[in-house]
Specification:
By secondary structure, this protein is of the alpha/beta class. The chain has 11 helices and 10 strands. The protein has a domain of about 180 residues: 2-enoyl-CoA Hydratase, Chain A, domain 1. Strand 1 and strand 2 form a beta hairpin.
């Protein structure tokens, strides 16, 4: 797999831990996307890896897409999604080994989508979950339009999507977005205990169970990702998105016009 620039790896007793580490907020650029895909391929093909833990460093799990990483006027939002997050989410769902999300901090936008693509999620008390997309005038992507209603229901999904309110770790637990919440200083211990238990289990049976559950509940994932990309292409060309990005970079409240 070679040296990775933005992901720290550690493997112990069958558990491969991948920590996103791209200052300041673990926001994705195409390099980190490709590195994550490489990690997922390694986890799939290496028999010594029996469980994957995905986490972040610092105060963020991931802030999602780095909006400064591409020129809005030149990018095709549709092609960008097919090249990046659609591949990541598809790989995560196709990995027939357990993936534990150690949600150490804020999970926003595409970072939320990656967090929801893990199989089991343990959150630190300081973690939060933010839809993020509408904050910069965009629509759902990274499989969130499918995963969130399955996990928390339609009404709560609409609330997260429309208001962009940060959902606390405790709310996420009550809503079913995460499996467990622990004090920040106990996150690593709690995740290691869970991941070690999974790694010692019948991972082939776990993988086949994951396949069956996804077929029953998320058979439309591929089509959903494609449709999200189509809608994002439209949203990405709006004046609101341009205003949202400008406001984000200028650290001010956006003035959306609905066009």
């Amino acid at each position: 797999m070679g040296d990775l620039q933005f992901i720290n790896l550690n493997q112990t007793d069958g558990v491969l831990t991948a920590a996103l580490n791209r200052p300041k907020a673990n926001a994705f650029d195409e390099t980190m996307v490709e590195e994550l895909i490489s990690v997922l391929k390694t986890a799939q093909n290496d028999d010594s890896v029996r469980c994957l833990v995905l986490t972040g460093t610092g105060r963020f799990f991931s802030a999602g897409q780095d909006v400064t990483a591409f020129n809005r006027e030149e990018v095709s939002f549709r092609e960008h999604l097919h090249r990046t997050y659609n591949r990541v989410i598809t790989k995560m769902h196709g990995l027939e080994k357990p993936i534990v999300g150690a949600i150490n901090g804020h999970a926003v936008g595409a970072g939320l989508g990656v967090a929801l693509a893990t199989d089991l999620r343990v959150a630190a008390e300081s973690a939060s979950f933010i839809y993020g997309f509408v904050g910069i005038g965009l629509s759902a992507d990274s499989g969130t339009s499918l995963a969130m209603p399955l996990l928390i229901g339609l009404a709560r999904t609409m609330e997260m999507a429309f208001t962009n309110r940060a959902i606390t770790a405790q709310e996420a637990l009550e809503w079913g977005l995460v499996n467990k919440v622990v004090p920040d200083d106990q996150l690593e211990e709690a995740v290691n205990e869970l991941a070690s238990k999974l790694a010692k289990g019948p991972t082939r049976a776990i993988g086949l169970s994951k396949r069956a559950i996804h077929r029953a509940s998320m058979a439309s994932l591929s089509e959903t990702l494609k449709y999200e990309a189509e809608l994002q292409e439209i949203a990405g060309r709006t004046e609101d998105h341009a205003e949202g990005v400008a406001a984000f970079l200028e650290k001010r409240e956006p003035k959306f016009q609905g066009k």
